[in-house]
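Follow-up to my post from last week.
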Amino acid sequence: MPSSEWVEMNFGPQHPSMHGVLRLKAKLDGEIVKEIEPVIGYLHRNAEKICEMTYFNDNLIYFDRMDYVGAMNMEVGYLEAAEKLLDISVSERVKWIRVIMAELSRIAAHLVWAGAYGLDLGMLTPFFHCFIEREKILTIFTEVSGSRQEVNYMCIGGVYQDITEKAISEIEDFVREFPKRLKDIYNMFTKNDIFLSRTKGIGILDKDLAISYAVTGPVLRASGVEYDIRKAEPYLVYDQVNFEVPVSYKGDNLARVLVRFEEMRQSLKIVDQAVKKIPDGPYFNPKAKKSLMIRMRGEGDVYARTESSKGEFGVYIVGDGGVKPYRVHVRSPTLRNLSVLPELSKDVMIADMIAISGTLDLVFGEIDR
Amino acid sequence: MTYTVQIIAESIGKDGRKIIKVTRENFLDLMKDLKNQGFDHLSLITGVDRKDFMEVVYHLHSMKTNQYVVVKVETRDYRVPSVTSLWHSANWDEREQYDLLGIIFDGHPDLKRLFLPESWVGHPLRKNYDLKKVQYINMDEEGNDYATFDERGGW
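User reply:
Got it. Predicted complex:
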């Protein structure tokens, strides 16, 4: 059939956190997708330019708004880079608090994904169960920081306020109760024949192709590469906790689903250890507080990478010795994950294309920045 | 590491990563060299506007050996060779830098803007970009976005 007879159609959004900002231009031959082109930029607000115009400590809120379903991981990513550039160290206690928050945030982000992915495939029940569980994590975030999603809890030199006894007991409750709830949710997916037939063997991502597209995170690990920055280049105290990196070799939709579920279990394991090991100490480095008033200055260029819930989140900051960053560039994992979608959606059914794009876990605050 | 091409300088950055500086003439050969040495993961391409020249920074990583290297190349006429033929991820990375900084990547298969509409005037991350001139975006009948300076022409 000549290409002029193909039908061009617009698709999207397929994820509650995408709220109308992903447009997939698809060329269809009947029900078969021939070509697909993601059109992005609808949420672009050039956070990198804004960062050049504000002070180092004030920039943090723009990072919260990148991956808004798992904001703590974004804060960790920015602070890893900013603190290196400004030569500010944090206490052991702060490092453990950050690990707890980052891992809880990863679970919260994966729960949004799991619920949304169920919706993509027409399952409503897991969505409610996922959001009930997620709400418990957001309650913990509210306890420590006062807000639910874009928490703004960490700051250069530490965290804004110490973790409270109440928060710790809430976390302990969560760690105790969550495994059973997670198993229920897991069974809703994997004991469902319709779900399995729509994910097994569909959207296979080859290992070499994945690396060439710079895909990271669960998507890469589902294609058989054991690469996790928490192991490859440990930051905070990830070298002092026991956890495994889940890897699957099939590279299909189901593999990406299973890897994320296993990751939630491993994150819970880390939180469990961290709550027990958390040492006493200051929650803020006074050096940062002092220089907060005279504005911190940094020179040189620093790249720090962290493992966010979507993959390698990198922050590259160039400082010229001034009170504001000279250039900030964010390596967004989801942008790379999205760029592989045209490759995966060649000659598949429309319904499969939706199922494939769901497993990539697209969050647009981070893609468009 | 050994290189077959001449490099300008080699140093260790503040974050402990090795930085290689290279001229634009030798740049593509060096990148091919590094690709063959196992740097299969192009993590990031960044353009830094140094006002009188543009610095393009490439972060390379090897999945197998977990090595990391940073390549820097400077350009005065905002042109550098494209590395899309070596790494697929460079395609969108280069489009992003072209979009926001106006760096032209010679040999890119389809160099067009990634985030902003094609008719957007200027490149926002340039240091001399005029922030006072507000541009509005609208959609034409075909469904394509366009930018306009007219306040009433936008959404």
